[in-house]
Structure formats: C-alpha cells, structure tokens
Predict the 3D structure of the following.
Amino acid sequence: MQQTSNPQTETSTLKARTFQCMGTVIGLTMPVSSPAEGQPGFEELGAATAVVERLFRDLDETFSLYRPDSEASRLARGDLRLPRASAQMRERYAEAHEWRLRTEGAFTPERPDGVLDLSGIIKGHAIREAGTSLLALGRRDWCLNAGGDVLVSGSPRPRSAEPWKAGVIDPADRRTLITGYALGGNNRHAAVATSGSAERGEHIWRVGNDGEFIQVTVAAADIVTADVLATAIVAGGTRMLNRAADCWDVAVLAIRADGTMLATPGFQPS
Amino acid sequence: MQTRFGPVQVQITVTNGKISDVTALQLTNTDGKSIQISNRAAPLLRSKVLAAQSANVQTVSGATITSDAYLTSLQAAIDAANL
C-alpha cells in the first residue's frame, strides 16, 4: 500500500458492503484501518451494514407497494384509511404533502389514479435514518449509496478534511461520468441525488412540460431535500429548477435529451 | 427580514389595509455589504467539466437502477474494488 504524505494519518483502506432492498442495491463504504477479515475495523463495517440493512428492510415491509401485505398496499386497496394508519405512515404522508406544497405540485405523493405512493420519499427517508443510526453507533466516516442516491459523513481519509468524491452518471452512456461533486469535507452539502425521466417505478408525474430534462442531479445538506428536488425538477422543468435554485441551498445539474446542460454555480467549474 | 443570504431590507406598500406590493430594497451579507445572490443555473459545456472533476470518485450518483442493472454499473465496479 502507498505511503501517505502525512505521517499522523493512520493508514486505512476503503471497504464496501452491499445488499439488495427496495428493488435496488445499497452500499456502505467506510475507511477501515485493519482491512482483514476477523480484524476489529473490518468487523465494524459488517456490524454497521447490518444495522443499515435492518432499517431498510423494516421500511420496505411497511411502505412497499410490491408487497400485497404491506401497510402501503392495504392503504392503496382502501382496506385501511390514512387516519387509522401507523404513526410512521402518517408522518411520511405529511412530509410528502409538505413537499408537494413547497414544490407547487411538481413533487406529489399521489399517482394520477389517486393511489397514495410514497416511494418517492421512502428511499431518501431510509438513507436519512440509516445515517442517523451510523452516527449513533459512533461511525464518523462513511458513504452510503442507495441506488445512486448518496449521503456521506466525515471523510474517506479519517481525521482529514478531504471530501468524498461523487461522480455523476452520463445518461447517454452509463459507463461514463459526466462530472464529479465533492461531498462533505468543507462543503456543507453531504448528499447528492439523481433522478431520470426513464426511472424505474415511474413515480415522476409530469406537470405541464414535455420532458425537458432527462436527468437531474441535486446536491444538498440532507438527502431528502436532494432526492425530492431532483424528482421535482425532472417533473417541473426549468421553472422548478429556478425555484429550487432560488429557495433552497442546493447545487443542480440538469441534462436535456440533446445532451446540453444547465448548472447552478456549485456545478460550474471554478 | 432574515434569509439564508443574511438580512434583507424590504419595503411594503399597503393599500386599503392589505399588502399590495413588496420590494426588496437591499440585499446585504452579515457585514452589511451588498452581495450578489444568484444561484440560478446557466449553460454548462461538457468540455469544461469532464476531465478534472470526474477522476478518482469513491461513489456514483445516477437515476435509480434495478438490482440487475447494478451488476454492470460503475458503482458495482467501485464496490468490487473495495471488497
């Protein structure tokens, strides 16, 4: 392994663990000081991943519309009414409804057929809760990626101000990156989320624009804001992009079908 | 009024007991100096961003992909390198 220039920095290696949930893959990456199986640092990653996985699975059991027996499915069928739903279901509905107001309808928790669909907010919520749990476990440095939505804490190099570097996928060629964005470190933005017009689940309902952007990436201090606004801008086009840039502390990169891009100052090269 | 850009002085016009107009008079930062606050998006050329900013990333942001699509993704390659 290469010697680091700072002798006070303990040598560490990035290690990752992944699992499948919510129809995608979730990965937790942490710098590990003893990167061998059976060593304390390595086991910490395993324990942290187990906590994150448990949290995602519990939320999926409640909120998945792909599980006929979930609380969300019972609500969708009308077997259960919202006022009688669990506290966490009502809280997420309230949060999603709040976002609908803030985005003037560009983000909505209801499908066109009227079925309540909170999938647009549950993954972000799961990432947020997982981050809180990791901090409670005493884990300071980590990067959590759930299907392309990312939340980080600390640094890939412990006790340094070095940020985590996130790449943004090129929608025209998913094997390449179109740009990068520094998360954490000295940047107040610790989260980045990307939405696309051809996204799985199609929980993006357009509000009067003809698919102006095929991919929108939003960086913010928290993952739910980044995730919801990325979804809202795909649905709402330039109008929603300007509203997001004016009203929230975010950086936005929006890509049109012809490959041209719009970027707020955070995504412009300095 | 307080905004995330610092205090903003506004003038309101009241007509028949209702606010009929609000005008921002001055935008200031905490030192009291006027600042420019535009966070609006502007066109970005691919050639301006590609090289420097996409090198050596530790994670990848993209539209949600299925578990199957993950297998051939850049993120899977990065995760595999960190196993």
About this structure: Residues 28-36 of chain B have pLDDT under 50 and may be disordered. The two ends of chain B are 51 Å apart (CA to CA).
